[in-house]
Amino acid sequence: MKSRIKKESPLLIGYMINQSNIEVLTKLTNSLKITLKPIGKESAGEKIGFLAGFNGFTKCDNVPENIIEDECLIMSGFSNKSMDKLLLEMKSHNINIPLKCIVTQYNQSWTLNSLIEELKKEHEKMKSQ
């Protein structure tokens, strides 16, 4: 008998996404069978693992002093194919959100605010090269 491992379904966490982008992203994610989870600055102190729904993470309700309010997309449970499809669809619908990442074993224990801070630094480095 073969064992079956349930594959994680794709989750797109959208932080501080403006309303017009949320409307388009909702249509795109529905058509691609991706769950969209829009969140706001009240989640800035939460761990990425908690936001992604991973076991072992609980709500912490910490509020960072300097909340970053830049739009950011965090992808969890995506295959390369599904991520490429989403990014292509976003581009074709003129959705430009520069800060994007995937959930990894390294960043799942970071707070959302810390992750976005690091993404901003990386984005600035890439722009300056």
How does this structure look, described?
There is one protein chain. By secondary structure, the protein is α/β, with parallel strands linked by helices. It has one domain. It contains four helices and four strands. Strands 2-1-3-4 form a four-stranded mixed beta sheet, covered by helices on one side. The mean pLDDT is 91.
Gyration radius from CA atoms, angstroms: 15 Å
Got a strand count? Answer: 4
Estimate the global geometry from the Cα principal axes. Answer: globular
Mean pLDDT: 91
Main β sheet profile: 4 strands, mixed
Query: Could you spell the SSE succession in H and E letters?
Result: EHEHEHEH
Structural class: alpha/beta
The stretches of 5 or more residues where confidence is low (pLDDT under 50) are none
Number of helices: 4
Strand order across the largest sheet: 2-1-3-4
Number of domains: 1
Strand content: 5-15%
Q: Roughly how many Å apart are the termini?
A: 53 Å
Helix content: 25-40%
Secondary structure layout plus pairing:
Layout: E1 11-15, H1 19-32, E2 35-39, H2 48-51, E3 72-76, H3 80-92, E4 100-102, H4 112-128
Parallel strand pairs: 1-2, 3-4
Antiparallel strand pairs: 1-3
